[in-house]
Specification:
heterodimer, A: two-stranded antiparallel sheet, globular, B: mainly alpha, 71% helix, disordered C terminus, binds iron/sulfur cluster, Tetrathionate reductase subunit B (chain A), ET_IronSulfur_Cluster-Binding (chain A), iron-sulfur (chain A), 4 iron, 4 sulfur cluster binding (chain A)
């Protein structure tokens, strides 16, 4: 009899405990645990972006002279670490003498409408703001590198200090205070134009309406929001050509090998 | 080729890549674990008597491999201290990030093997608990017996039934745990080498090869030096050798389908792959295929398979070969340029996270955990009992 009572008591205790756990679990779930990241839960403007807008860029390649002013401006504005760049202008030579011309390809994160980096991120640290800017929360990222591999445009790298992923934010901090991205502001030829694609009167919208444009690697299905006017077909998809001269020069100068470096045979 | 060669890169940024030695090593461990589990299930679930003597050891091996494997992943994280972020955030990416759901499988699977092993050896732990002199030891063995000290017929039957159910659930789970690692790569559409729905199947097929290979390497060592029999079961080695042979055949067939579709019929990425395989020709064709798959396949299907030494050799080179396949896939695949032209090369460093010594430490941990598990579990006694039975022990 005593035993039975004890066991009854125990059972009701267990029942009570589990009910309590369930209830508190549900409460936590409903309030704090949305499974997203804190910035978005708190609807912090830096995380949700500017309502109703959709930022993008049009690069008019006819105007780009390959001066790398944008590369430098970005480096200064965003204090990117040594050897790492959020944007740069790749330079190619096309054809064989005497039929040659140069191709400049300014490139940055495309702030894709269907970003493969966001899809694969297991912590939610990489996300798209409501206005289309793709961001990384460096307080949340655990540094697995999945997004670095998933971006078809090689626009992500590990920041050696924060040990998290870093990339172009389209200068969201500047956009949010009504300024233009540093690369746009510094572009000497006016080749880079950024703005709201939803606003039909914005300069980006008018360029898109008035010219035929193309995006990089359209077959990846990422729907990039950086558009190019006058894009050379030879660099639109995965580029195939001679290896990077920078790395060949490193080899010639007998510099130590980097962890990842262009292979030469 | 001429059309490609008329584009000269003057300057571009050489990108970094995130995954080094850790990841192929992790893939190799989970894959071999899945295979060891399947081989154990041949006896436990499908009731194939031939594999009974190795089933217990194989199950424990599967467990240990899967305990050691995730250490690679933690080492690979640039922010390992943020492990908890995985559980707190990012659930809205559940369906699109194989890493998200994969980690859940990765946690469930070793637990399942552990419970299956504890059920399998429960009788032993009950006896141990009864014999134990100190309270601590008694408590430990009681825990290992899952708190159930009954040894009557009904209780044993229940164990068997539960073990069968766990084993049966374990088979799809083992396949998914390794399948998801292939899924992780297959889902990266930006990488022409990885992006194929065949990737999980390819990974599973080669995993069976490496798992059988590993078992063939370990079995003679443990039988000869750590079991009461003190000798190697040649019949079992022959059976495992033939099994390895069929796994290699399946692996080659899957790879045949992969390569014959991925190169000529895959649109733009096909050209990249042709260049890729041209670039890695010696490593892939001569080493990975010829030396590490075809040669062992010939050994295990020939009369040489009756010689333990030859089987051991075949097992060893297939296990190494599959490791190379993982390396070539993970590291070689990342070497394919997207914004940079040509191929990148990876030079692993010696010290620090994701380094050569880190991998060696992981192997050290694997061997240490295996030794502990082999000490606690009576796999040797169980193995010896099978040899006293009617089917084995005579030559
Ligand atoms: S360019 Fe790369 S990093 Fe930027 S949004 Fe697209 S996939 Fe993500
Ligand atoms: S490295 Fe960071 S941002 Fe990238 S997928 Fe992993 S957790 Fe997400």
């Amino acid at each position: 009899m005593d035993e039975e009572k004890k066991s009854m008591k125990r059972r009701s205790f267990v029942k009570g405990l589990s009910a309590w756990l369930l209830a508190s679990g549900a409460a936590v779930q409903a309030q704090a645990f949305s499974g997203k990241i804190p910035g978005r839960d708190e609807e912090d403007q830096r995380y949700v972006g500017q309502e109703g807008k959709r930022f993008g860029m049009v690069v008019d390649l006819r105007k780009c002279v390959g001066c790398q002013a944008c590369t430098g401006a970005c480096k200064v504005e965003n204090k990117t670490p040594r050897h790492h760049f959020r944007t740069w202008v790749a330079e190619y030579e096309r054809g064989e003498y005497p039929a040659v011309h140069k191709v400049f390809l300014p490139q940055l994160c495309n702030h894709c409408a269907s970003p493969s980096c966001v899809k694969v991120c297991p912590t939610g640290a990489t996300f798209s703001r409501g206005d289309g800017v793709v961001m990384v929360d460096d307080k949340v990222c655990w540094g697995c590198g999945y997004c670095v591999n998933a971006c078809p445009y090689d626009k992500r790298y590990f920041h050696p200090q924060s040990k998290t992923v870093d990339k172009c934010t389209l200068c969201a901090h500047r956009l949010d205070s009504g300024l233009l991205p540093a690369c746009v502001e510094s572009c000497v030829g006016g080749a880079r134009v950024a703005g709201d694609l939803n606003d039909k009167k914005s300069q980006v919208s008018r360029l898109l309406a008035g010219f035929s444009t193309a995006v990089l690697q359209p077959s990846q299905g990422n729907r990039p929001q950086v558009y190019y006017i006058g894009l050379d077909g030879s660099v639109q998809n995965q580029v195939r050509g001679t290896v990077n001269l920078d790395d060949l020069a490193r080899m010639r100068d007998g510099k130590p090998r980097r962890e990842w470096q262009t292979a030469y045979k | 080729m001429e059309i490609f060669e008329s584009l000269f890169t003057i300057s571009s940024v050489t990108p970094d890549r995130p995954w080094g030695l850790n990841i192929p090593n992790y893939f190799w461990f989970t894959g071999s674990s899945a295979a060891a589990f399947i081989i154990a299930s041949f006896a436990h679930v499908f009731g194939i008597r031939k594999y009974k003597p190795v089933a217990g050891f194989s199950l424990l091996l599967a467990f240990v491999l899967l305990v050691a494997a995730p250490l690679n992943l933690i080492d690979d994280l640039r922010q390992p201290g943020r492990l908890f972020n995985f559980f707190l955030y990012g659930w809205d990416h559940f369906l699109t990030s194989p890493m998200k759901w994969g980690v859940l499988l990765l946690m469930a699977y070793p637990l399942l093997i552990l419970f299956e092993a504890l059920l399998l050896y429960r009788t032993h732990f009950v006896h141990k608990a009864q014999e134990a002199s100190s309270a601590l030891a008694r408590g430990f063995y009681r825990l290992m017996a899952l708190g159930n000290m009954r040894l009557d017929e009904a209780a044993l039957q229940k164990d068997e039934k539960r073990g069968f159910v766990l084993g049966a659930i374990g088979i799809p789970l083992a396949l998914s745990v390794h399948g998801y690692t292939g899924y992780i790569l297959g889902a990266v559409q930006a990488n022409p080498l990885w992006s194929t729905p065949l990737m999980p199947v390819l990974f599973l097929a080669s995993a069976m090869v490496s798992g059988a290979g590993l078992l063939i390497v370990l079995l003679p060592i443990v039988q000869r030096y750590f079991s009461p029999m003190q000798r190697v079961d040649g019949d079992m080695m022959l059976a495992l050798a033939r099994l390895l042979g069929w796994f290699i055949v399946i692996d080659l067939v899957v790879r045949f389908f992969w390569l014959t579709f991925a190169m000529p019929f895959a649109g733009d990425s096909g050209y990249t792959l042709v260049e890729y395989f041209r670039h890695h020709f010696v490593g892939v064709v001569y080493v990975e295929y010829l030396l590490c798959l075809i040669v062992p396949m010939i050994i295990v299907f020939s009369p040489l398979a009756k010689r333990v030494g030859w089987v051991f050799l075949a097992g060893l080179i297939t296990a190494v070969g599959v490791w190379l396949f993982r390396w070539n896939t993970v590291v070689g695949g990342q070497g394919i340029g997207r914004t940079a032209t040509g191929f990148l090369e990876h030079t692993p460093h010696w010290f620090g996270p994701d380094s050569i010594t880190a991998i060696m430490a992981n192997w050290g941990a694997f061997i240490a955990i295996l030794a502990i598990v082999m000490l606690i579990f009576p796999w040797d006694r169980e193995m010896a009992e099978h040899y006293q039975g009617e089917h084995h022990g005579k030559e």
